[in-house]
Amino acid sequence: AAPRGGGKLDYRAIAPVPRTVDTVTVPEGYDWGTVIRWGDPLFADSEEFDILHQTGASQAGQFGYNNDYLNIISDGGNDRSGYLVSNHEYTNEYIMFPPAYIASNFTDVVDAAIEAHGLSIVDLKRAKQGAKWEYVRGGRRNRRITGTTPFTVTGPAAGHALLKTVEDPTGTRVLGTLNNCAGGTTPWGTVLSGEENFNQYFKGRGTAEEKRYGIGTGSTERRWEEVHDRFDLTAPGYENEANRFGWIVEIDPEDPTSTPVKRTLLGRFKHEAGTAVVAPSGQAVVYSGDDERHDYLYKFVSAEKVVEGDKKHNMTLLDEGTLYVARFTGDSPASEIDGRGTLPSDGEFDGSGEWIALTTDRKSFVPGMSVAEVLVYTRLAADKMGATKMDRPEDVETNPVNGKVYMALTNNTRRTAVDEANPVVGNRDGHVIELTERGGDHASTRFDWVILLLAGDPAVSSSVYFSGFPQEKVSPISCPDNVAFDSAGNLWISTDGQPGTIGFGDALHKVTLDGPERGRVEQFLSVPRDAETCGPVVHDRDNSVFVNVQHPGENGMWGAHTSYFPDYLDPAGPVQVGDKVAAPRPSVVQVFDVTGN
Ligand code: FEO
Ligand code: CA
Ligand code: CA
Ligand code: CA
User: Fold this and answer.
1) How far apart are CA 425 and CA 345, in angstroms?
2) How far is the CA of 481 from the centre of ligand 4 (A)?
3) What pTM was estimated for this model as a whole?
4) Which residues lie in coiled coils (predicted)?
């Protein structure tokens, strides 16, 4: 067995797992189990999961689909209770529902899908510290936020003409949140969640602004616009409905009666996430990547300071302050960046950078654009200001131990013109940047940066780099997506896309940041077939790691599933037996120590 002390998550890296393996693979000495699955009932009066007859009403009382962001929070002073917060990014109707049911009950399917989006907040209990968590049906904090939950809009764009529709002439009240991807818990205890690929839900008019955000003009994949007019931007009165998505939302998970909020001052783009940290001055700083090829990294700095213990005040912080976009400048000659990942002569892909102010809550710095226009069309504003086009910025988070900011750039197969911060042509495997704000001040407008790693499989790829750590000693890694940290400050990276690049199942890896082993990648787990590893939460003091297993079996379809995770019912038998179904179910998974507890 791997050498292991108490509460340190010692493990010996697992070998990469073939992409067809349909289970969670963990290191020796560990086991895994589900905490909650798609369809599990949250409330005393929730309908039981019935995969053959799901409706909007049944799904509204159950755990949603394709959970991505995750946090597990134990109640202070009590090791046996807590809660989880999870997003539900999107739906795969062709896996979720029988084709005959889609044909006969299309409205039910659309409404079930809308209710399967959003977030869940669920109470947890466990026997003792370090034990596996169980979810509590009917828990006091249990809540579903879905594609129909009323949100309040705040900040400078609230009430602007660009946010008004026939259903909401005030431009301040939106039904639902969509495509919530990664996220973060703020220092004041709220949850920030990014509305990412919202474009896919809307049938557009073909305006330049809609095109910049990827909104198409034909039928959408899910055809919600056939059931609900608001998803059809060509329907009179609904031209602005898509402007009401693409925001950072803030939710108070402790109060299930609170109205969730869309914070317009953090800009509108394909927010991967929003992660908050407190600057030395006390100002709140939120980092957020725009996950698109050649899009940007943003940060927000609040005007006012965080007041410890005053949640009411702290929930006003994101409505006043400054929104910035990042420009990265390399310190090596452009001629030394060869596009193949060869290190420049100074031995590092590194340089400095600046945060370019786009707008405050009162004053726009973008020529020809008002404050509200900068916020609603943030991508167009950043285009004008010379921001650096990045290789798909995914999760961006601050390391609580060393204070540096870690940015996953998942890939960019369309990268042609390289720069020192995006140095690989056709970047298939992605990279990770370590960003240090000047003076360790998250509110600074200047920073320094260095590429921590160029991902890939050293056995087959030539453009890999692991901060100088020997390539032959790392776990292969591709398409970094979410990042997290353990209590010692090691970086944990989950992946989205390894099966299609290096041929292994998506994974969770630990990366050492300090000392002679800086850059060492050690794989901790692998997720089931076709799934993406999301929302890693590393509780090393509890010897536990949590991941969201998102979209297992995504390459299959009803009648030809490629995954039966986690119920594994015989596909030749009945579709449903009790609460188990012969179809894949996205789930929250806990990995726990079975030897040292
Ligand atoms: Fe939903 Fe950028 O991953
Ligand atoms: Ca350099
Ligand atoms: Ca993601
Ligand atoms: Ca992703």
Assistant:
1) 19
2) 6
3) 0.97
4) none
